[in-house]
Amino acid sequence: LGVVITKADLGRPAIPMNRTALGAANLGAPIRFVGYGKSVANDAGSLGTRRSAWLTVSAVSTGLVGSQGGGKAFTCNGDSGGPGLVTLGGVPRIVGVNSHGNLTCSGTNWSTRVDTFAASFVDPYISKFDPAWKPL
């Protein structure tokens, strides 16, 4: 995970991070990924275009959330760092940051869970640079 601090407001509302522990109840939930990776594994020329894909939460471990898609629903090389969003309580929330999968852009995709790092890693940076901030 990383934190980016900007000097000026970006002019868009923030997408809230998930702060509730993921678990078995989240298995099967739709998860939307957004990234700039390849559209197919062997096409480096397709890098750099914003795309999104709907997958399904297939695994939850201590620090990772796994997801799988089917057909044209996948993440691929270059999508790392992009958000994985699940609607929780009626609100789309970032539950993961796309981390890794396999070189064929199929099978299980793995994302770092944000609920395990929000309070300990992200919040101190935000509080330091925006003291009036409150978690969404």
Strand content: 25-35%
Category by helix and strand content: mainly beta
Largest β sheet strand count, sense and barrel closure: 6 strands, antiparallel, barrel
State the low-pLDDT regions, or none: none
Which oligomerization state do the chains in this entry correspond to?
Answer: single chain
Please count the helical segments.
1
Helix content: under 10%
Give the N-terminus to C-terminus distance in angstroms: 18 Å
- Secondary-structure element order, N to C: EEEEEEH
What value does the Rg take, in angstroms?
A: 15 Å
Mean pLDDT metric: 90
Number of strands: 6
Task: Sum up the overall morphology in one term.
Answer: globular
Question: Which strands sit side by side, in order, in the main sheet?
Answer: 1-2-3-6-5-4
Summarize the structure.
With 136 residues, this protein is mainly β. The chain is 9% helix and 31% strand. The two termini are 18 Å apart.
Folded structure, characterized:
The chain has 136 residues and is mainly beta. The chain has one helix and six strands, in the order ββββββα. It has one helix spanning 118-129; strands at residues 30-35, 51-60, 64-68, 83-88, 91-100, 109-113. Strands 1-2-3-6-5-4 form a six-stranded antiparallel barrel.
